[in-house]
Amino acid sequence: MTDNELRGLILRRFYEARRSDIHKLTEEERGEVGREDYNRIGQQLRDHGLLDWWQPISGLGSGRITARGVDVVEGVVQAPVSINLNDNSVAVHGSQNVQIGNGNSIKADTSIDIQKVMSAIDQSLAPTAEKEEAKSLLAKLSDNATFATIVGAIVTLASGGAN
């Protein structure tokens, strides 16, 4: 697992235990995460203000999620560090004839080459002022992870990249 996946897994587990005081994840809650990775990721999440974390000299650390950590998991604020919180779960309420999975999935490369987009803007027939405004807006929006993911998926679908 990558560190951003580990951060997401550990943060989500502490989120699930947020109503308890200090918590140490059990072996079952940690899953495949070893002791060294667990402690290292706990320290990273502490350094970014997402967990209150206590690390003993030996053994497993313990902690509790901070208000900022809760806000990151709930999507209220953007994480200060790369965290993969996507658990790929789907909840359907009050619907009929719903199909999930098997034949209706989309695989999309969600990365965008900003330089290619900037170049396309430069080559457009738009007036110079509009080109500059478009490039400025693109630069601002490309810093937003949600925007970049959505645009990347749209570009992939438009180019026939959906499965």
Q: What key attributes describe this structure?
A:
163 residues, mainly alpha, Arc Repressor Mutant, subunit A, two-stranded antiparallel ribbon, 7 helices, 47% helix
Structure description:
There is one protein chain. By secondary structure, this protein is mainly alpha-helical. The chain has 2 domains: 3-73, Arc Repressor Mutant, subunit A (Orthogonal Bundle); 114-158, no CATH class. It is built from 7 helices and 2 strands. It has a two-stranded antiparallel ribbon. The model is unreliable at 103-110 (pLDDT under 50).
C-alpha geometry? elongated
Order of helices and strands: HHHEEHHHH
Proportion of helical residues:
40-55%
The share of residues in extended strands comes to: under 5%
Give me the secondary-structure category. Answer: mainly alpha
How many domains?
2
Low-confidence stretches: 103-110
Briefly, what CATH class of the largest domain?
Mainly Alpha
Number of strands: 2
CATH architecture assignment name of the largest domain: Orthogonal Bundle
Task: Please specify the SSE layout and strand pairing.
Blueprint: H1 3-16, H2 27-30, H3 35-47, E1 51-54, E2 62-65, H4 67-73, H5 114-123, H6 128-142, H7 145-158
Antiparallel strand pairs: 1-2
Helix pairs in contact: 1-3, 5-6
Please sum up the structure shown.
With 163 residues, the protein is mainly alpha-helical.
